[in-house]
Design a protein that fits this description.
11 helices; alpha/beta; Spore Coat Polysaccharide Biosynthesis Protein SpsA, Chain A; globular; about 300 residues
Amino acid sequence: MTPDVSVIIPTYNRCAMLLEAIDSVLAQSAHAFELIVIDDGSTDGTAAALARIANQPAARRGIALIVNRVDHRGPAAARNRGVALARAPLIAFLDSDDLWSPAKLELELAFMRDNPGCAIAQTSEIWIRNGRRVNPAIRHRKRAGDIFIDSLRTCLIGMSSVMMRTDLFRTCGGFDELMTAAEDYDLWLRVLIDHEAGLLDEPLVTRRGGHPDQLSAKTPALDRFRILALAKLLADDRLSPTRRTSVVEVLAEKSCIYARGLRRRGRIDEARLYEWVADQARGWETRAAPEIGCAIESMRSMLGEIPHEC
């Protein structure tokens, strides 16, 4: 039988937290789902732990468990691999350091059924930092509807709270595997060009942060990835004039700030690129100029992702 939803967990060297995340999925009140765990080349015993779970079908209450081990390429590639294996019309992501409340899938599935025009939705979250509950800043608080412009400065969709239609994910091209950070910010903005976000305003996800291996804490200068995502938006002809103006404004602002930081660190060539982007951005308000593509390739080159050929 085809499952209602495919749950996808990517993981890398988080065995203990991963097992807690899996337990929170197996404890769901809804049963019509498959669980897909993508082991992104872990070296900490994760593979053995997953093998033990795979050999205990009784503990899974008949829930299909798919474990796929891949070479280490980062969370974007791991999630894309998970979606490639997914059989359900809906997908839900869970980061391996987060947890779900037992009714998360049941309530979110009901929300999606009651709102057939909704292509992507999320729930509210409980935030834990260093073992203590904290309140998110006002700018991080979830809201429903057209959140594209608000999401340019702050990522307003939480990865572990999302449920979305599988065909939407595939149509949008999935996560950009060349982005080693802010790949969620990039995808959600591409989705939000054409879709409003639904919100089930119940805290059904526990988001755990502050641990040493948290990707956002380990990755320096996250804005370089956000700037790349914004530049990619300007190469998209679906943007309305109002949205295009907003993207240009945030791109110029972030590029200026990042360029100043590069100059302070003596990285002059890189600083010049981002200064040029900030200077040129106003000219990109009304059209997708050819030089946007060159800027994107240059940014990727400086991230060490692909050779620069412009």
